[in-house]
Automatic annotation (TrEMBL):
Biological process according to GO: DNA-templated transcription
Annotated SUPFAM superfamilies: Periplasmic binding protein-like II, Winged helix' DNA-binding domain
HTH lysR-type domain residues: 22-79
Key words, A-Z: DNA-binding, Transcription, Transcription regulation
Organism the protein comes from: Chromobacterium phragmitis
The organism's taxonomic lineage, starting at the top: Bacteria, Pseudomonadati, Pseudomonadota, Betaproteobacteria, Neisseriales
GO molecular function ontology, one term from the record: DNA-binding transcription factor activity
Name under which the protein is recorded: LysR family transcriptional regulator
Amino acid sequence: MTEYREKREAAPEEAAGESRLPSLRLLAGFEAAARMGSFSRAAESLHLSQSAISHQILQLEAFVGQPLFHRVGRGVELTFAGELLRQSVARALDTLRRGLDRIAAYTDPGLVVLVGPAFLLQGWLQPRLPGLHAAHPDIIPLLSTDEEPGLADEVDLDLLISPRPLATEGWEDARWLRDEWLFVSSPELADRLAALPFERQNEAARLLRLEQAGLPDAVDAEVRRQQRRLGVAAIYDDAQLARDAALRGHGVACLSLLAVDDDLRAGRLRALAGYPRLPGAQWWLSRPMNALRSDAMERMFEWLSSAARPAPACAAGGG
């Protein structure tokens, strides 16, 4: 024990501060030797000489002030202190490896970080991702939701979908999708409503009212008008909850076309005849002029621009 205390006293700079840690090199050598029960095999696995591993173990033992191994035949076994350290080091190295594995995905040259509102990514983009993968199999979209994105130059992103141009130096803004608001219901409810005169439709359904900040004035006014005519079944402050209620046949909802685009195409929802369709936001697609992943970003930008050119939905029964 004395020799280890002397070695620690010989290196007072290492003893300063409670947050001191041995180097990762020493810990990796120790973990390999502890796992394999042999300095020579640990040296082979780390592409080092046996003397180098032995020297690392001596340094680590001097650092902790305890013997970590004792020799057994041609191998080594951990002391009690060594076993305690092995458990901690094994957990720490495993955490580090998993962290590095996670980071590796973010260094893929095909990664493109796209930030946009949840309803649009789910209702419009998500159903079209197979088309992106077919056209550009190397692109890995990282989708992040943000209803009110902040300053783009403060966030690590490649593409941004927002309801207004950024007008920020170093960024390019392009008009993208134009939204629309329409009244929808489940197909079964739509059939029941169609069988009634317009003035009697309140006998079959009530309104699923969306109370959402930023709702266009014309949309809010029309929703209030329909509320007086139909009555209210429920009030929601989240568009996805209102959409879910409409899918379940709970009533009539006025929703963004981009939020229900795939539902309309698949026939899960139907645009109601006789109800107005109202203009919504002009959505913009923005990108930095200089980016690390410029090739993948450029191709995804062009793909998104191309995918937006057709009409967003074929809403049968709309009026």
